[in-house]
Design a protein that fits this description.
Blueprint: H1 3-15, H2 25-41, H3 43-46, E1 58-60, E2 66-68, H4 69-75, E3 78-82, H5 89-107, E4 111-116, H6 120-130, E5 136-138, H7 143-147, E6 151-153, H8 156-164, H9 169-173, E7 179-181, E8 184-188, E9 194-199, H10 211-223
Parallel strand pairs: 3-4, 4-5
Antiparallel strand pairs: 1-2, 3-8, 6-7, 8-9
Helix pairs in contact: 1-5
Protein backbone atom coordinates (compact mmCIF):
# COMPACT_ATOMS: atom_id res chain seq x y z
CA UNK A 1 0.00 0.00 0.00
CA UNK A 2 1.32 3.45 -0.87
CA UNK A 3 2.07 6.02 1.83
CA UNK A 4 -0.80 8.25 0.72
CA UNK A 5 -3.22 5.31 0.72
CA UNK A 6 -2.24 4.58 4.33
CA UNK A 7 -2.68 8.25 5.24
CA UNK A 8 -6.07 8.37 3.54
CA UNK A 9 -7.23 5.25 5.39
CA UNK A 10 -6.13 6.71 8.72
CA UNK A 11 -7.79 10.03 7.92
CA UNK A 12 -11.08 8.31 7.06
CA UNK A 13 -11.15 6.48 10.40
CA UNK A 14 -10.03 9.58 12.31
CA UNK A 15 -12.70 11.80 10.76
CA UNK A 16 -15.35 9.12 11.30
CA UNK A 17 -14.70 9.44 15.04
CA UNK A 18 -13.39 5.91 15.45
CA UNK A 19 -11.22 4.80 18.40
CA UNK A 20 -8.70 5.49 19.76
CA UNK A 21 -9.14 9.19 18.98
CA UNK A 22 -12.97 9.39 19.11
CA UNK A 23 -12.90 12.89 17.67
CA UNK A 24 -16.24 14.74 17.44
CA UNK A 25 -17.31 16.38 14.15
CA UNK A 26 -16.85 19.91 15.54
CA UNK A 27 -13.13 19.27 16.00
CA UNK A 28 -12.80 17.99 12.43
CA UNK A 29 -14.53 21.13 11.14
CA UNK A 30 -12.00 23.35 12.93
CA UNK A 31 -9.08 21.35 11.52
CA UNK A 32 -10.55 21.56 8.01
CA UNK A 33 -10.99 25.31 8.36
CA UNK A 34 -7.38 25.83 9.45
CA UNK A 35 -6.05 23.69 6.60
CA UNK A 36 -8.21 25.46 4.02
CA UNK A 37 -7.03 28.86 5.24
CA UNK A 38 -3.37 27.81 5.10
CA UNK A 39 -3.83 26.45 1.56
CA UNK A 40 -5.59 29.68 0.50
CA UNK A 41 -2.85 31.85 2.02
CA UNK A 42 -0.43 30.76 -0.70
CA UNK A 43 2.30 30.14 1.89
CA UNK A 44 3.36 26.90 0.21
CA UNK A 45 4.02 28.73 -3.08
CA UNK A 46 6.37 31.14 -1.29
CA UNK A 47 8.50 28.36 0.25
CA UNK A 48 11.84 27.30 -1.21
CA UNK A 49 11.39 25.28 -4.37
CA UNK A 50 13.36 23.37 -7.02
CA UNK A 51 16.02 25.61 -8.53
CA UNK A 52 16.54 27.63 -5.34
CA UNK A 53 19.67 27.37 -3.23
CA UNK A 54 18.82 25.50 -0.04
CA UNK A 55 19.48 27.35 3.22
CA UNK A 56 22.43 25.82 5.05
CA UNK A 57 21.79 24.34 8.48
CA UNK A 58 23.70 23.15 11.51
CA UNK A 59 21.43 21.38 14.00
CA UNK A 60 21.72 18.91 16.85
CA UNK A 61 20.59 15.30 16.69
CA UNK A 62 18.87 13.70 19.72
CA UNK A 63 22.26 12.86 21.25
CA UNK A 64 23.48 16.44 21.02
CA UNK A 65 25.79 15.90 18.05
CA UNK A 66 25.98 18.69 15.48
CA UNK A 67 24.84 17.70 11.98
CA UNK A 68 25.40 20.24 9.25
CA UNK A 69 24.22 20.32 5.68
CA UNK A 70 27.67 21.13 4.27
CA UNK A 71 29.10 17.91 5.71
CA UNK A 72 26.20 15.83 4.44
CA UNK A 73 26.41 17.28 0.93
CA UNK A 74 30.11 16.48 0.70
CA UNK A 75 29.11 12.81 0.78
CA UNK A 76 26.25 13.00 -1.73
CA UNK A 77 22.79 14.43 -2.30
CA UNK A 78 20.45 15.03 0.62
CA UNK A 79 16.85 13.89 1.09
CA UNK A 80 15.36 16.24 3.66
CA UNK A 81 11.96 15.92 5.34
CA UNK A 82 10.37 18.60 7.52
CA UNK A 83 7.68 17.28 9.82
CA UNK A 84 5.50 18.58 12.63
CA UNK A 85 6.38 16.32 15.54
CA UNK A 86 6.06 12.94 17.20
CA UNK A 87 2.51 13.84 18.26
CA UNK A 88 1.36 13.86 14.59
CA UNK A 89 0.28 10.38 13.36
CA UNK A 90 0.57 11.44 9.71
CA UNK A 91 4.18 12.45 10.31
CA UNK A 92 4.99 9.14 11.98
CA UNK A 93 3.59 7.20 9.04
CA UNK A 94 5.71 9.30 6.71
CA UNK A 95 8.86 8.66 8.75
CA UNK A 96 8.21 4.92 8.64
CA UNK A 97 7.78 5.07 4.86
CA UNK A 98 11.04 6.99 4.50
CA UNK A 99 12.82 4.40 6.63
CA UNK A 100 11.51 1.66 4.34
CA UNK A 101 12.82 3.57 1.30
CA UNK A 102 16.22 4.35 2.82
CA UNK A 103 18.03 1.37 1.22
CA UNK A 104 17.09 2.79 -2.19
CA UNK A 105 18.39 6.25 -1.21
CA UNK A 106 21.61 4.61 -0.01
CA UNK A 107 22.22 3.18 -3.48
CA UNK A 108 22.73 6.71 -4.78
CA UNK A 109 24.90 7.86 -1.89
CA UNK A 110 22.12 10.06 -0.54
CA UNK A 111 21.79 11.05 3.09
CA UNK A 112 18.32 11.05 4.67
CA UNK A 113 17.54 13.53 7.44
CA UNK A 114 14.33 14.72 9.08
CA UNK A 115 13.89 18.09 10.79
CA UNK A 116 11.29 19.00 13.40
CA UNK A 117 10.91 21.91 15.84
CA UNK A 118 10.43 19.45 18.72
CA UNK A 119 12.89 19.00 21.57
CA UNK A 120 15.59 16.33 21.64
CA UNK A 121 13.66 13.97 23.98
CA UNK A 122 10.72 14.03 21.56
CA UNK A 123 13.08 13.37 18.67
CA UNK A 124 14.46 10.36 20.54
CA UNK A 125 10.87 9.20 20.95
CA UNK A 126 10.35 9.61 17.17
CA UNK A 127 13.41 7.51 16.43
CA UNK A 128 12.44 4.82 18.95
CA UNK A 129 8.75 4.54 18.10
CA UNK A 130 9.28 4.53 14.35
CA UNK A 131 12.46 2.39 14.45
CA UNK A 132 14.46 4.91 12.45
CA UNK A 133 18.06 4.56 11.34
CA UNK A 134 18.37 8.15 10.13
CA UNK A 135 18.76 11.27 12.29
CA UNK A 136 15.99 13.53 13.52
CA UNK A 137 17.32 17.05 14.00
CA UNK A 138 15.88 19.65 16.38
CA UNK A 139 15.11 22.95 14.67
CA UNK A 140 15.17 25.18 17.75
CA UNK A 141 12.54 27.93 17.52
CA UNK A 142 11.81 26.80 13.94
CA UNK A 143 14.66 28.88 12.48
CA UNK A 144 15.52 26.52 9.62
CA UNK A 145 11.88 25.89 8.81
CA UNK A 146 11.54 29.67 8.63
CA UNK A 147 14.56 29.93 6.30
CA UNK A 148 12.90 27.42 3.95
CA UNK A 149 9.65 29.42 4.11
CA UNK A 150 7.75 26.62 5.86
CA UNK A 151 7.04 28.06 9.31
CA UNK A 152 3.61 29.47 10.04
CA UNK A 153 1.68 30.67 13.09
CA UNK A 154 -1.36 28.67 14.11
CA UNK A 155 -4.55 30.75 14.12
CA UNK A 156 -5.94 31.58 17.57
CA UNK A 157 -8.94 29.26 17.21
CA UNK A 158 -6.64 26.32 16.38
CA UNK A 159 -4.40 27.15 19.34
CA UNK A 160 -7.48 26.96 21.59
CA UNK A 161 -8.41 23.58 20.09
CA UNK A 162 -4.89 22.22 20.56
CA UNK A 163 -4.98 23.33 24.19
CA UNK A 164 -8.28 21.50 24.70
CA UNK A 165 -6.77 18.38 23.11
CA UNK A 166 -3.71 18.66 25.41
CA UNK A 167 -1.56 19.10 22.32
CA UNK A 168 0.87 21.44 24.05
CA UNK A 169 3.20 22.67 21.32
CA UNK A 170 5.11 25.12 23.57
CA UNK A 171 6.14 22.14 25.72
CA UNK A 172 6.77 19.79 22.77
CA UNK A 173 8.97 22.41 21.08
CA UNK A 174 10.25 24.44 24.05
CA UNK A 175 8.96 27.48 22.16
CA UNK A 176 6.01 29.67 23.20
CA UNK A 177 5.27 30.86 19.66
CA UNK A 178 2.68 28.23 18.58
CA UNK A 179 4.29 27.77 15.19
CA UNK A 180 4.82 24.71 13.01
CA UNK A 181 6.44 23.94 9.67
CA UNK A 182 4.31 22.89 6.76
CA UNK A 183 5.35 19.30 6.02
CA UNK A 184 7.86 19.33 3.18
CA UNK A 185 10.23 17.04 1.32
CA UNK A 186 13.34 18.18 -0.52
CA UNK A 187 16.13 16.62 -2.52
CA UNK A 188 19.22 18.83 -2.46
CA UNK A 189 22.10 18.38 -4.88
CA UNK A 190 25.74 18.43 -3.80
CA UNK A 191 26.02 21.99 -5.08
CA UNK A 192 23.35 23.04 -2.60
CA UNK A 193 20.65 23.61 -5.22
CA UNK A 194 17.21 22.11 -4.57
CA UNK A 195 16.44 19.42 -7.17
CA UNK A 196 12.98 18.47 -5.87
CA UNK A 197 10.48 20.10 -3.54
CA UNK A 198 7.05 19.19 -2.26
CA UNK A 199 5.44 21.45 0.34
CA UNK A 200 2.10 20.44 1.83
CA UNK A 201 -0.12 23.03 3.54
CA UNK A 202 -2.52 20.08 3.96
CA UNK A 203 -0.68 17.97 6.52
CA UNK A 204 -2.63 14.84 5.50
CA UNK A 205 -0.94 14.84 2.08
CA UNK A 206 2.64 13.59 1.66
CA UNK A 207 4.69 12.62 -1.42
CA UNK A 208 5.69 9.02 -1.93
CA UNK A 209 9.30 8.24 -0.94
CA UNK A 210 9.68 6.50 -4.31
CA UNK A 211 9.25 9.91 -5.98
CA UNK A 212 12.77 10.74 -4.80
CA UNK A 213 14.40 7.87 -6.66
CA UNK A 214 14.15 9.34 -10.18
CA UNK A 215 15.62 12.62 -8.91
CA UNK A 216 18.53 10.80 -7.25
CA UNK A 217 19.09 8.78 -10.43
CA UNK A 218 19.33 12.00 -12.44
CA UNK A 219 21.72 13.52 -9.91
CA UNK A 220 23.92 10.42 -10.11
CA UNK A 221 23.88 10.52 -13.92
CA UNK A 222 24.95 14.17 -13.95
CA UNK A 223 27.76 13.48 -11.50
CA UNK A 224 28.95 10.54 -13.60
Amino acid sequence: MSLQAKLDAFKADFEAGKPPYNVPPAVIEIMHRATAELVASGAAQRAKKAGDVAPAFSLRDPDGNIVNSAGLLKRGPLVLSFYRGVWCPYCNMELQALEAAKPEFDKYGASLVAISPQTAPNSRKSVRQNKLSFPILSDVKGQIGDAFGLRFHLPDYLVELYKQLKNDLPTFNDDPSWTLPMPARYVIGQDGVILYSEVNPDYTRRPEPEDMIAVLQQAAAVKA
